[in-house]
């Protein structure tokens, strides 16, 4: 077993080769996007414990550690996680259906929120970006203020390193925004979509998403773009589907607790 504090080159090479081979299957990449991003684009912000049977990544750029894993053993998942986060910690996972049962056996589950992974399958040329313009790091304070108004999580300057962000202004007030959460060569996730409560139902969500799609697909025509929407948010689902997004697969945002007892080294 190796962690990135004492990783030997062979272990990382093996993991990288495994991921690169599996990424030739777009559907696999979409289902395991969080782990692929953690092991590649976000690797500097992640800790990884890996062995041939199980690999676990922990991203520490959020309020709670975000876990992703490859492997089928709940026991290994539970044990490896205790090398990455403090016992008793709350952790978050976003998993596909086949991984949900593994996580449920490995951790004490606090909450599960079913979501849809929505993949853009429409014609970007038919979309209207309205008055959306590019957002830059100098606009971060306005973005954070809108995030608070819209009751979504805030963001830092690292967001601008991951891809374009777009917004709509009313005077000096940012009233709508969206950004690239993570970008891989073949797949990009968009998120941080927010509209000021006083300006909803005016088409600004559609404008911002259209602007993001146009910029991303102008950079790479074959790029697959997706977003995540909770299954209970039927109005948001309607908006995205009207833009040309399709429901690719159910995903599950899980809030869990890591076991209190110290991990024992698994042979």
Q: What's the average pLDDT?
A: 91
Q: In sequence order, what are the helices and strands, one letter per element?
A: EHHHEEEHEHEEHEEEHEHE
Walk across the major sheet and give the strand order: 1-2-3-4-5-12-6-11-10-9-8-7
Distance between the termini: 8 Å
Which consecutive residue ranges, at least 5 long each, have pLDDT under 50?
2-8, 263-267
How would a crystallographer describe the biggest sheet? 12 strands, mixed
The coarse overall form would be globular
| C-alpha-based Rg, rounded | 19 Å
**SS-derived structural category:** alpha+beta
- Total number of beta strands: 12
Helix content: 25-40%
Q: What percent of residues are in strands?
A: 25-35%
By DSSP (H or I, 4+ residues per run), the number of helices equals 8
Describe this structure in words.
The protein has 267 residues and is of the alpha+beta class. Helix content is 31%, strand content 33%. The protein has helices spanning 9-22, 26-31, 33-39, 74-81, 97-106, 140-150, 204-219, 234-243; strands at residues 2-3, 46-50, 54-59, 66-71, 90-96, 108-120, 133-134, 165-170, 173-183, 187-195, 224-230, 245-257. The protein has a 12-stranded mixed beta sheet, with helices on both faces. A hairpin with a 3-residue loop joins strand 2 (46-50) and strand 3. The chain starts with a strand and ends in a 10-residue tail after the last strand. The model is unreliable at 2-8 and 263-267 (pLDDT under 50).
């Amino acid at each position: 077993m190796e962690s990135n504090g004492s990783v030997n080159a062979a272990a990382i090479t093996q993991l990288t080769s495994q991921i690169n081979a599996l990424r030739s299957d777009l559907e696999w990449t979409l289902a395991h996007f969080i782990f692929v991003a953690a092991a590649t684009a976000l690797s500097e912000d992640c800790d990884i414990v890996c062995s041939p049977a199980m690999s676990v990544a922990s991203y520490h750029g959020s309020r709670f550690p975000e876990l992703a894993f490859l492997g089928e053993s709940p026991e290994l998942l539970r044990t490896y996680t205790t090398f990455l986060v403090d016992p008793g910690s709350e952790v978050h996972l976003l998993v596909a259906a086949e991984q949900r049962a593994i996580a449920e056996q490995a951790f004490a589950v606090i909450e599960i929120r079913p979501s849809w992974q929505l993949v853009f399958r429409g014609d970007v040329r038919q979309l209207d970006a309205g008055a959306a313009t590019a957002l830059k790091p100098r606009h971060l304070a306005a973005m954070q203020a809108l995030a608070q108004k819209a009751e979504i999580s805030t963001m830092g300057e690292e967001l601008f390193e991951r891809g374009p962000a777009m917004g709509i202004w009313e005077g000096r007030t940012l009233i709508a925004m969206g950004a690239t959460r993570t970008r891989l060569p073949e797949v990009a996730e968009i998120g941080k979509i927010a509209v000021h409560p006083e300006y909803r139902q005016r088409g600004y969500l559609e404008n911002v998403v259209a602007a993001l799609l146009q910029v991303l697909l102008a950079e790479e025509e074959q790029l697959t773009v997706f977003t995540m929407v909770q299954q209970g948010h039927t109005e948001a689902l309607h908006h995205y589907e009207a833009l040309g997004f399709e429901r690719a697969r159910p995903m599950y945002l899980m809030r869990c607790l890591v076991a209190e007892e110290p991990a024992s080294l698994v042979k």
